[in-house]
């Protein structure tokens, strides 16, 4: 059994803290030493990706200290306990089994007599069979027409991950003849969100998936009612159009309002649920079950790498360790995620949830306040768009923001033009390479306005193309990074009690059970 | 003439710094005192909006100190100099005239014999006339068919602001019968961005606006070539479909490749250019010139309020001052922008650019390093989506993030449903009211996991509905806030030298003129 300890009780952390400011990357990344670092500080990931940390503020001494920290905090042991079914989510007394849904290699996890791996796989198979019947025209609308659109109704973890993955593969699927149905997403309780989506589709030929693990998410139930209302007004029977993705014990699972229901359970948290039916139904319908299976395979291969105790061969753990060095030793409060791929447009928003909701905690897994900072602020937009936006501050602002680049050698659609002797894709790649060096090394100038101090650390994940496998590996990399950081900070990365108070107060506002400032704001908003 | 001074040389800033941690909003916002604050700490904005700062860490003493700071730093005088045509952009030796494009009240600004206000208005009128002819079918494609789609090709300031405004009013325009043409946007040099947009439209019935002030933006020229290539391949003459929005001296203005050209100049920076033809052409085409004029009117009314020397009657200046108190006294490094309106989906991305590119500087307007922090990290997503994502960290993380809410009493499309006795819009409003109190007051609990420390400051801008006028006022509010903060920090908010180095290095990569780490990364990316 691993021992759970606060970060600041570890001797290895004290040693690491002594290495504050050790590496000057302006120097380290200059000249031939820089090239040597690029070659050496490079770790293979799954699906042909590579994690390159040459431009991070590390050297062999810092890496050795990080290795000691990984060992003392028993990161791999804790990961093994997690995927073998230990109660890692202490607050809610739950297991954490999203790895299991994508081919986990450890012991079988049996809960109340149920083999959980078989359960997750059986639901994936159910989604696959259903999708195949829809694609084949065996399941149709009442008029016998094929369904052309699938709409996911969910919020937070039931929305951001599946939406980011859909956007990431939409063009790839079109270019590779696996595009089956258009997907749309309704999340916000703002009625204009649902109305705009409904205005943009043919509801008679659409399937709607109501996604809520608890079956009680107010936004999602509200939007479900909104959609049902629209179906009825269009003269359609909602039962022919509505699907549910929920837990077997939820209110949604009890009704017979759905054409089909798909199940998950409490052991896969919302922000990790792309690997469950939360992602599986919509993505199998949109791209076919085979593409969805390839995403899971890429993720599973990355999960496998995360078991390596050698930090230089474990990109997920290494990324986590470097992040904790930046956060708790170097003192940087934020991290930017910058994918140089339009396909990864919404991937930063997904990571923002996954990271900030997992590790934005002030108490340890035993409920005791911690004396150090935990999860950073995560934000980002795709490059090169960001270059023409907030990069000014990243280059010349007063704060240092560690950067996490992602780049690919090839685009997805294969269409390109040559301008001034180079393709768009070459320009895209040239920009990300240039940015890494500009941030790391900076540049002096007589004009102080044009001076770049450099010393702004970044890593890059480089791949060949955004494919189902490489996307799955990327997803799992960040999920595992966040998990390892949770272990390092000794927080419970798998609950989210911080979202409850707002819900309670909103219910009171709607019941007009308020006083003081809450009543005053409610009055200003005419509620 | 105003005197330009660093923040830390001001006696009023020293006094303000003594007020660190003065207001405990857990107490201040509790009970009837909280209701009193909501009533008192409320400043009218233009177009029926209100800026409410009851839940900020201020009281009358802090506000008096902020008023002294505003006076000593001569904020209103500097604004007056700006709109009267002083060379505020010291780095580039330029005026800053975006206010002039939307009815500025000061002296005429004559540059090289040209009345700049007349120039901007004449270009707006040209865009209006052009749009009317397109809508009336007087300007058509070669086959005599009406144009149905307009595509903006631009990046950064030529993209984010106009795109955010388009998304903000798309549904409003549809509900109010002013929707004329669909707009799309191509920005990223990733060829998949342009290809996906082209795949989604009928190019034969589309107009494309090439937007680049300098006429040399590599991404935009590349995407222009990409689009022209597609037009030619479709058997169309690009000249019948391409428009330019650029400066009169740019290479784009010289060619005769465009059906029509619209002009701006160097005195309106990219991130402030929604009020120039950068926003004017696409929005006039999409919604009609009258709607665009209404946006400018809302902005102009807000600009007018920004002249008031009484900080309690100047919402833009007050917001700026509170932000500097949070950044430089309280020590908070980030700010989240959280609009409770799906229509404002991309407004945070626009503000992220406008703020971080303007004030992410380490030298003052004379090029001397400053000894204090300047622009914060800005990020955000619409509520209630964010509640199910990163709010966990905002509520219970170890860092405090000041929050900027925006909320509206009414939705845009007017379609809504009642579930559990309340409409979606009421639920949306109830949530934002609840969040303000949850963040400010927190809640104790026996279970430390469910404990909320509170003390997390927020403001809210409340309006009736996202309309052209209120959107213009909102835009101007933040532009002016950023301008005042630049004055407070004594930085030049109107240049962006920090984006240059990456461009230079990218050009070297494409020319294979690299060595060391830059060559190594280029090789890894197969450039």
Automatic annotation (TrEMBL), chains A, B:
<feature type="active site">
    <location>
        <position position="388"/>
    </location>
</feature>
<dbReference type="InterPro" id="IPR001672">
    <property type="entry name" value="G6P_Isomerase"/>
</dbReference>
<dbReference type="InterPro" id="IPR046348">
    <property type="entry name" value="SIS_dom_sf"/>
</dbReference>
<keyword id="KW-0963">Cytoplasm</keyword>
<dbReference type="GO" id="GO:0006096">
    <property type="term" value="P:glycolytic process"/>
</dbReference>
<keyword id="KW-0413">Isomerase</keyword>
<dbReference type="GO" id="GO:0051156">
    <property type="term" value="P:glucose 6-phosphate metabolic process"/>
</dbReference>
<dbReference type="GO" id="GO:0097367">
    <property type="term" value="F:carbohydrate derivative binding"/>
</dbReference>
<dbReference type="InterPro" id="IPR023096">
    <property type="entry name" value="G6P_Isomerase_C"/>
</dbReference>
<dbReference type="GO" id="GO:0004347">
    <property type="term" value="F:glucose-6-phosphate isomerase activity"/>
</dbReference>
<comment type="pathway">
    <text>Carbohydrate degradation; glycolysis; D-glyceraldehyde 3-phosphate and glycerone phosphate from D-glucose: step 2/4.</text>
</comment>
<keyword id="KW-0312">Gluconeogenesis</keyword>
<dbReference type="GO" id="GO:0006094">
    <property type="term" value="P:gluconeogenesis"/>
</dbReference>
<comment type="pathway">
    <text>Carbohydrate biosynthesis; gluconeogenesis.</text>
</comment>
<feature type="active site" description="Proton donor">
    <location>
        <position position="357"/>
    </location>
</feature>
<dbReference type="InterPro" id="IPR035482">
    <property type="entry name" value="SIS_PGI_2"/>
</dbReference>
<comment type="function">
    <text>Catalyzes the reversible isomerization of glucose-6-phosphate to fructose-6-phosphate.</text>
</comment>
<comment type="similarity">
    <text>Belongs to the GPI family.</text>
</comment>
<dbReference type="GO" id="GO:0005829">
    <property type="term" value="C:cytosol"/>
</dbReference>
<dbReference type="InterPro" id="IPR018189">
    <property type="entry name" value="Phosphoglucose_isomerase_CS"/>
</dbReference>
<keyword id="KW-0324">Glycolysis</keyword>
<dbReference type="Pfam" id="PF00342">
    <property type="entry name" value="PGI"/>
</dbReference>
<protein>
    <recommendedName>
        <fullName>Glucose-6-phosphate isomerase</fullName>
        <ecNumber>5.3.1.9</ecNumber>
    </recommendedName>
</protein>
<dbReference type="GO" id="GO:0048029">
    <property type="term" value="F:monosaccharide binding"/>
</dbReference>
<feature type="active site">
    <location>
        <position position="503"/>
    </location>
</feature>
<dbReference type="InterPro" id="IPR035476">
    <property type="entry name" value="SIS_PGI_1"/>
</dbReference>
């Amino acid at each position: 059994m691993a021992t759970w300890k606060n970060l600041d009780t570890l001797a290895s952390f004290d040693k690491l803290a002594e290495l504050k400011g050790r590496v000057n990357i302006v120097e380290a990344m200059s000249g031939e030493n820089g090239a040597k670092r690029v070659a050496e500080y490079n770790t293979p990931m799954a699906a042909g990706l590579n994690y390159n940390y040459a431009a991070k503020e590390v050297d062999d001494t810092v890496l050795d200290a990080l290795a000691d920290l990984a060992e003392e905090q028993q990161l791999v042991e804790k990961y093994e306990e997690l995927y073998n079914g230990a109660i890692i989510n202490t607050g809610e007394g739950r297991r954490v089994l999203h790895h299991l849904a994508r081919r986990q290699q450890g012991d079988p996890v049996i809960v109340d007599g149920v083999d959980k791996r078989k359960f997750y796989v059986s639901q994936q198979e159910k989604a696959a069979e259903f999708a195949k019947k829809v694609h084949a025209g065996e399941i149709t609308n009442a008029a016998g027409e094929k369904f052309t659109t699938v709409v996911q109704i969910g919020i937070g973890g039931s929305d951001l991950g599946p939406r980011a993955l859909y956007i990431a593969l939409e063009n790839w699927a079109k270019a590779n003849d696996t595009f089956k149905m258009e997907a749309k997403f309704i999340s916000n309780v703002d009625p204009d969100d649902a109305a705009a989506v409904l205005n943009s589709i043919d509801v008679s030929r659409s399937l709607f998936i109501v996604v809520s693990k608890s079956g009680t998410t107010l936004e999602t139930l509200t939007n479900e009612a909104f959609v049902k209302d629209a179906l009825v007004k269009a003269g359609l029977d909602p039962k022919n159009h509505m699907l549910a993705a929920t837990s077997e014990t939820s209110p949604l699972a009890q009704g017979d309002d759905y054409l089909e229901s798909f199940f998950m359970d409490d052991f896969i948290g919302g922000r990790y649920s792309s690997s469950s039916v939360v992602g599986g139904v919509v993505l199998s319908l949109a791209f076919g079950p085979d593409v969805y299976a390839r995403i899971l395979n890429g993720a599973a291969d990355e999960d496998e790498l995360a078991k390596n105790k050698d930090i230089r061969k474990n990109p997920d753990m290494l990324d986590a360790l470097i992040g904790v060095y930046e956060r708790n030793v170097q003192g940087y409060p934020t991290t930017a995620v910058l994918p140089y791929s339009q396909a990864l447009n919404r991937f930063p928003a997904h990571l923002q949830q996954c990271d900030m909701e997992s590790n934005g905690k002030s108490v340890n897994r035993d409920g005791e306040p911690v004396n150090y900072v935990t999860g950073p602020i995560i934000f980002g937009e795709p490059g090169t768009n960001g270059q023409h936006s907030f990069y000014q501050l990243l280059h010349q602002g007063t704060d240092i923001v560690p950067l996490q680049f992602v780049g690919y050698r090839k685009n997805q659609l294969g269409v390109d033009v040559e301008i001034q002797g180079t393709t768009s894709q070459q320009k895209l790649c040239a920009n990300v390479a240039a940015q890494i060096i500009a941030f790391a090394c900076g540049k002096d100038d007589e004009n102080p306005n044009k001076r770049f101090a450099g010393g702004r650390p970044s890593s890059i994940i480089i791949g060949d193309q955004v494919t189902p496998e490489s996307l799955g590996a990327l997803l799992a990399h960040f999920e595992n990074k966040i998990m390892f950081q949770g272990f390092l900070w000794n927080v419970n990365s798998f609950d989210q009690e911080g979202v409850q108070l707002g819900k309670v107060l909103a219910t009171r506002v709607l019941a007009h059970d308020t006083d003081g400032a809450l009543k005053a704001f409610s009055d200003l908003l005419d509620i």
